[in-house]
Amino acid sequence: MKRSDVGTLPFCPVSSQGEQMMAMGGVEFDSKVSFLDAEMSDIRHALLRRDPLSAAKEVLYHLDISLSSAMQSSGGATPGLEKSTVELVEEFIFHSPKDRNVQPKKMSCIQELQLLEIMCSYFQEQNKDALRQIMFSTLFSLQGNKGDESRMAMLGKLVSMAIAVCRVPILECAVTWLQRTHSAWCVRLAQVLMDDYCTLVPSAITTLQNISTASPRFCCQLITAVTALYDFSSDELTPPLALLELLVGWITDDPRLLLLTFINTPLSSSLPLGCLEITPLLGLLRWCVKSPLANHRSHKPTLNNGLEEGEKRTVHEELYSKLHLSVLQVFLMLQAHLTEQNLIGRLAVLPLESVAALIEEVSHLSEKLTAVQIQLALDRLAQALQVAMATGALLCAREDLRTLCSRLPHNNLLQLVMSGPVVQPPSHSSPFQPNMYPHIHTGRPSPHSPHQSALPSPHSTHPALSAVTPHRPLTAHPGHPSLSPHAFHPAAMTFPYRPIR
Is pTM beyond 0.90 here? Predict the structure, then answer.
């Protein structure tokens, strides 16, 4: 938002000092007599005389000045705002009235669209990333009050517009919002975007395709939120075919999308309780395992697009098969990063409690699916558990795995995973916890054994991770291209696991 935008507003005549400063619009304020020096009560009374759009634009302008001044006085630290300023934002932008007796002035659809355009221009033209992020957070951080519904409504429209016109700065701000906000609100934002680009206008989903190149970090967070939204609990919460095709295309073209949030998040940072998973791997794994449920529900003889039911099932099975393979391959990419950062056995990318919840869901599926369908779900679950444990993404003892899977129907592959050989590493300086399942095969020492730390690493730059920023608290790592062939280590082979069809 430029100062000239505010200067074009049709200000009414004013008399008080605060109102006179409001009338100055886009004029550069004198340092001695600042907009910030006016009494908030005078400012509020002046804003009440304006039309809703004019008042909202003025508050945005005032908020920008307040945050800039606060950042300068705080030496770059995250500034705090006075309660009166926050109240102006809630009253004149999100229309949460300060006085119960005062009927809030709401903007018309045209005025709301104009305000969204002003916001888009502001975030696009603001060249200070720190100020842009703080401005976005101030506007859309949830406060636990009645204004939150209005915040979420405007946030959904703003992000949807940013996708349509490819406003990358807004998408990058939305990434931070998705990382720090409770998953329930993130799911609501994902629902708005899916309604706009999948349900209301199905052909509009093509607009999302280029976002993976414009803002890969946003794509990663969007995938995580979307997998939390669609949990297969109903037909409405089953991933649409167009969305499934889009996500599979994204991941197939660039598998590192799934690891961007994890690799670029400092290990020392503490995420709020209830936030989204650090990677979309668990959500995508849930999709692959529970996908037979979608085919089980498909009972219509024909579809609107002319495809027979059998053809639809074939398309879905192929897509979920590709997705399953991609998830397993990303686990191997993840192992390269964990190994380089010496995090194998020390950092669980897949939380055990989340995996336990997925296993419990699969247990309930056995009552709904046919024998063939439940075996497909169990095969995919077994493959994922095997690869996740072998690559260090899941830290789980074999005895714990047996306990978790004890209520599942019999499955040969799952039994093999639970009863497979276990490598017991030496207790001193061991990167693995005792009684873990670090590798699928035994018979040769692990290339990541602590006794081989003095040997040169067999890895060099991995093309899939070469462009990814490492964890900030840790030193940057060069990545790993082709792994040296090793007949007994799964990560050293050309990917030997085949997707279960």
Answer: no
